[in-house]
Specification:
CATH superfamily of the largest domain in chain B: Thiamin diphosphate (ThDP)-binding fold, Pyr/PP domains
Largest sheet of chain B: 7 strands, mixed
Structural class of chain A: alpha/beta
CATH topology of chain A: Rossmann fold
CATH class of the largest domain in chain B: Alpha Beta
Order of helices and strands of chain A: EHHEHHHEHEEEHEHEHHHH
Largest interface: A-B, 46 and 49 residues
CATH class of chain A: Alpha Beta
Distance between the termini of chain B: 43 Å
Order of helices and strands of chain B: EHEHEHEHEHEHEHEEEHEEHEHEHH
Number of strands of chain A: 8
CATH topology of the largest domain in chain B: Rossmann fold
Largest sheet of chain A: 6 strands, parallel
CATH superfamily of chain A: Thiamin diphosphate (ThDP)-binding fold, Pyr/PP domains
Strand content of chain B: 15-25%
CATH architecture of the largest domain in chain B: 3-Layer(aba) Sandwich
Helix content of chain B: 25-40%
Shape of chain A: globular
Radius of gyration of chain A: 20 Å
Shape of chain B: globular
Strand order of the largest sheet of chain B: 3-2-4-5-7-6-12
Number of strands of chain B: 14
Oligomer: heterodimer
């Protein structure tokens, strides 16, 4: 088991690329929050504020042909893997043109044919699914493929987490299992969630490699995820990555998160990874605060234009909906009754 | 002679042989050949494609879903239908919703060794077809003959949708046929297995045979009982049942599952709402009792409908 914290050795190009994705994800989520407050979004809005560094580091280390099953707080990772502000807004706003066509919403979106899986709400469920996808790739003789999926501290308590990670370990598949230990599962603190000293301890129990990382530090996240993905890709079997950070928003935008311990907010774990990255960029002389400010303005203006466009798009029409849940045409006549 | 279990094994053998996308995954199904020997010899014949799984029903189904998204056609075995409750989430929330949500089909087959036998008890005897049929997106097959066990399992593998394949354990070795069928009945079509003019029995799986025995018994009283084997409970071939009821005017639905809701309730609801005018008497149903499936053979054989119980129910219905 390696201890990989702290070192900021990612190259300038990669760091800045990752930062720009984080920034876009942050700005997009701010837009989602205001659309929610304005009553434009039906259902919940679930944000990843504070988790962008860890999340983006997963998506950015994957490549075309890999499999990615993100979770609720992975807007940054999703965008690094190729998801767009356009499809995010379409799915949240229920546009008929979105990938889920109004049939599912918010973070339950994906394009499975492109290796970008659409999560179901039940936590841990995507772990065996990615494991099965990797098994299929192995059947087809493909090597060098990685499947990554994410979970929170709460999700590690599910049976699906246990069964999925164990099965992946038995099959020695290239699964990268990323745990964002954000200290709370909705309102439940970690001392009501698990009794082991550290979630990283689970790695040895499952017989998989374990990596820990400071989730507030983009450079560390890039480095550790880079190592974990490379290890999985080169035949090292499942990799468990545990990032320590704090969820800087409520569970959803309906939740004021008043239960979060102020001491955690003030501690190292409570740092905002986006601000930490900005300070690092400026201190390294890679960009000035003014340049960073202009990047934010640029991202905001693009997202505002996209949101305005999506708000004018058609909603799904129940009279044109096919109302069939089966795909095989041999069955559809029978089901129509 | 070919048993119902042989037919299931032959179907998997043929599916593995003709389609490289097919693989089998489940507990003890590899070298051991499965708890009921449904996969006996297949691991040797198809190296690497018949795989033992950990005791993880959720992961077994989840793995099948992921493999299906990537273009494979997995057949997974639940050791007993009862244990599929541990994989229920993946079946009903993931496999069943995938196509509707994402336009990506989910061609998996989940084999459920179903139904009771003497001594099985509460956790090795359940019939779960009604539960799964409730969920949009699932196909639920309940073969009651050797021929159907074979051809329907082959059909299930070719379907692009998730199939819950309820194979009856009691029929595994009891039921025999001369040969495997060369032709198949279309997916989702019921079959009239015995023609009669006085009363219709709509049933499926092992209850087809109890119903046929009851029909024999009633023939001695001069009644001609028509028996409809539903074959697939979802989709449900209401037309064939309605056409039969149009001839007989009376309907009894027989199922081995628990009495609340379920397939028999659905058949009666449909016949009553779509064919009320065809009925000469209130439609009746006979199910298992509303308790867990008991262990002792004396209790078990009274818990499920038997030929005698079906014959009694038919006599009551014919006198109405």
């Amino acid at each position: 088991m390696s201890s990989d914290r702290g070192k900021e050795t990612a190259t300038r190009t990669e760091y800045l690329k990752a930062y720009r994705v984080m920034l876009t994800a942050r700005v997009l989520e701010e837009k989602l929050s205001s659309l929610y407050r304005a009553g434009h979004i039906k259902g919940g809005v679930f944000l990843g504020r504070g988790q962008e560094a860890l999340s983006v580091s997963v998506g950015i280390n994957l490549r075309k042909g890999d499999i990615y099953a993100p979770l609720i707080r992975d807007q940054a990772g999703r965008m690094a893997f190729g998801d767009t502000a356009l499809d995010t807004l379409r799915t949240y706003l229920g546009s008929q043109l979105g990938s889920m066509r109004g049939r599912d919403g918010n973070i339950h979106r994906g394009r499975p044919r492109e290796g970008y899986y659409a999560m179901i709400s039940h936590l841990g469920a995507m772990i065996p699914v990615v494991t099965g996808a990797l098994m299929a790739r192995r059947f087809r003789g493909e090597s060098g493929v990685v499947g990554a999926t994410c979970i929170g501290d709460g999700g590690t308590s599910t049976g699906a987490f246990h069964e999925g990670l164990n099965a992946a370990a038995v099959e020695k598949l290239p699964l990268v299992m990323v745990v964002a230990n954000n200290q709370y599962a909705y309102s439940t603190p970690n001392d009501r969630q698990y009794a082991c000293a550290d979630l990283l301890d689970k790695a040895i129990g499952y017989g998989v490699a374990g990596h820990e990382v400071d989730g507030t530090d983009l450079g560390a996240c890039l480095e550790v995820l880079g190592k974990a993905v490379a290890a999985a890709r080169s035949g090292g079997g499942p990799q468990l990555v545990v990032g320590r950070l704090l969820r800087l928003v409520g569970h959803g935008e309906h939740d004021d998160a008043s239960y979060v311990d102020p001491a955690l907010k003030a501690a190292h774990v409570g740092r905002d990874c986006l601000k930490v990255a900005e300070e690092f960029i400026v201190a390294s002389g890679w960009a000035t605060p003014e340049e960073i400010g202009s990047w934010r303005v640029e991202a905001k203006s693009e997202i505002d234009v996209t949101a305005a466009k999506v708000l004018r798009e058609p909603a799904p029409d129940p009279n044109e909906e096919e109302w069939t849940a089966v795909s095989d045409t041999r069955l559809q006549d029978n089901f129509a009754a | 002679m070919i048993t119902y279990l042989d037919a299931i094994r032959s179907a998997m053998d043929e599916a593995l042989g003709r389609d490289p996308r097919v693989f089998l995954y489940g507990q003890d199904i590899g070298a051991f050949g499965g708890a009921f020997k449904a996969t006996k010899g297949l691991a040797t014949k198809y190296p690497g494609r018949v795989m033992d799984a950990p005791l993880s029903e959720d992961a077994i189904v989840g793995i099948a879903i992921g493999a299906a998204i990537e273009g494979m056609r997995p057949i997974v075995e639940m050791q007993f239908a009862d244990f599929s409750t541990c994989g229920f989430n993946q079946i009903v929330n993931h496999a069943a919703t995938l196509f509707y949500r994402t336009e990506v089909p989910c061609p998996i087959v989940v084999r459920l060794p179903s139904g009771g036998g003497p001594g099985g008890g509460p956790f090795h005897s359940q019939s779960m077809e009604g539960l799964y049929a409730q969920y949009p997106g699932l196909v639920v097959m309940t073969p009651g003959t050797v021929e159907d066990a074979y051809s329907m399992l082959l059909d299930a593998v070719t379907l692009d949708d998730p199939v819950i394949f309820c194979e009856h354990k009691f029929l595994y070795n009891h039921l025999r046929a001369e040969e495997l069928p060369k032709e198949t009945t279309p997916i989702g079509k019921a079959r009239i297995v015995r023609h009669g003019r006085d009363v219709t029995v709509a049933t499926y799986s092992a209850m087809v045979h109890e119903s046929l025995a009851a029909a024999d018994e009633l023939r001695e009283d001069g009644y001609q009982v028509e028996v409809v084997d539903l074959r697939t409970v979802k989709p449900l071939d209401t037309d064939t049942v309605l056409a039969s009821v149009a001839r007989t005017g009376r309907l009894l639905c027989v199922s081995e599952s628990f009495p609340w809701g379920g397939v028999s309730a659905e058949v009666i609801a449909r016949v009553t709402s779509e064919g009320f005018g065809l009925l000469d008497a209130p439609p009746q149903r006979l199910s298992a009792k509303d308790t867990p499936v008991p262990y002792h053979p004396n209790l078990w054989s009274s818990h499920r409908p038997t030929a005698n119980a079906i014959a009694s129910a038919l006599r009551r219905l014919l006198e109405m």
